[in-house]
């Protein structure tokens, strides 16, 4: 994390000669140094090593690894207070050329910086290629900085040195005058260089020994560009260190709950409950603000650090570090029984992907909130609310009515909530569960009151939006993914409502039989089996199948219930009573959202949400499935299948009738576009795929260029050889080759990660990781893989790595292993 005393940009470079070999010491050293950018050469990293495994708290990493041969590689660690964009990088292959990364660094309102890190292997040519490329980029930047190990000794006269000095002179740059940076027993040479655009921008420069990494010195500069203080992320938590559950419940029983029961307004009831719980928890477990501290290597005791300072060249300290690290993690995992704590430690190790919540937002929260809300609103934009007439309440046996909710159902629904996320009421599900002996009757009363009178509490309609970056360095608002957090207790009521509606839909057979999402007993595997079995049967009959895989733009957000009441009309047609419709209208309408900054915890102003089913809700997915009911009546010629918003239509045909089949497909697509328009949904032609499937004998003879095109709204859809559908790679020839290759590569990458941490985990956790991370790759939709040869090929491709890593993980030798 950047030191708060830092005022100007601080950058350093070191040749680390294997980052993984010195990772603990690297993290311990650079964690508190206050450098804004750390440039590394000779990282010796491979693509199989994930960014999370080599993460440094408060920094994001950018890297260019050498592939195919050991050694080489360059990287940046850039502070989260800065924005970076990679402009240019080397190919990552050992071809006798320099390895480099060139990035654009944005520092607040200052001009952008062009920064490069270079590693030139010994006796390597083509240095001019990098120098010319950097010179071409430099014309658009005010600040220029190059760091790297050029393997050209400035203390002697060589062709390489002359080339570098000529470049510096021609581009009017400045070479920082360091002393020799590489030391052996017999000599010292100046190999590590820093080149800047202007000597006057150098506030200071320095170098120091970095023998814990390599024989190269660490070189650094302080550059005259001001840096905003990087705020550390704040988390508001409750202090349970002195919490006594009995005292808490006794205090809670002292409230006059009759006030709540006698209130005639649902919002007053919910407000009384929330206020009572908050006041009581504030007394027994007060709120406190913490700033997460990430101790890079807590196993490095003061004694070990003392040895590190006086280490000798034999590097005996590495054995101490490794032993202390193993002992630390083994004790930590043995003492942890909570799954959350275990996964947190695994994330710390880098075995699991980090949540990436420490990144500073580059846009104000109000602007992000406006953007998220406008995107969700779609083409309707700001909508005017037109009250809908639901009709008078009349009782009919065939209609759906809410059932009375029992206390046991409320308790069961609460206990099924696994998330500890906190909504606008400031109360997590865990806090309600602890208070359940006192508040269960109150919650049951509120839930029944809500369903009976058709009103949904206003507080529960407001969502907190957490913007999560989709990419490493967001530059536009669409680079953020909005994650919605609702009040935890509201999900219990939603679950009860969902179960009652689902039961009614199943009993009446109203749900689409070709919709597999959010239904008990159905899954992605079921959807794939249904589609692929149809295709295989057609292939057995010497036919091919024309398939179109549709992509709907933000389908869940475009569900219309506010202006045109399409969803409410569909629910009425399905037999929901007026009282049920009144509650659903209250549930869907008048919703709001606010964006929360992950660092400062400040929240934007609230903005209304007019369309869509609530993200992060329990009831929303079922309502979306209901919204799609009736689609089957649109098609005349094709079969179809839905999994949530993933739609595929397909038509079997003999090869001689293929042209006619494509015309029929286009006719059905026209009907689908009209259906989508009338339901306010939006098809995305650029992400929609078409494919002709069949046996290799028939597919190989097709000339796709002469076939009629498939169109969506005059946009041509290209024919593909491979489509990823529900996480499975399907090929036109019904081969599993690509799917097997992808799964094998992913399994090998995970196994490689586990191998790097093999000494740090107890046996039971190693087996659990294999079960959690590896087996799902083989198990997911395994029933769809019909050719045993492909299954065996998947086994053989992963067998060498898996055998070796199982031996390491379980500390056993597997019999029958061959060389």
UniProtKB/TrEMBL annotation:
InterPro entries: DNA/RNA_pol_sf, Endo/exonu/phosph_ase_sf, Endo/exonuclease/phosphatase, RT_dom. GO terms for biological process: DNA biosynthetic process. GO terms for molecular function: catalytic activity. Pfam families: Exo_endo_phos, RVT_1. PROSITE patterns: RT_POL (PS50878). It comes from the Eukaryota. Residues 449-704 form the Reverse transcriptase domain. This is Uncharacterized protein LOC112456521.
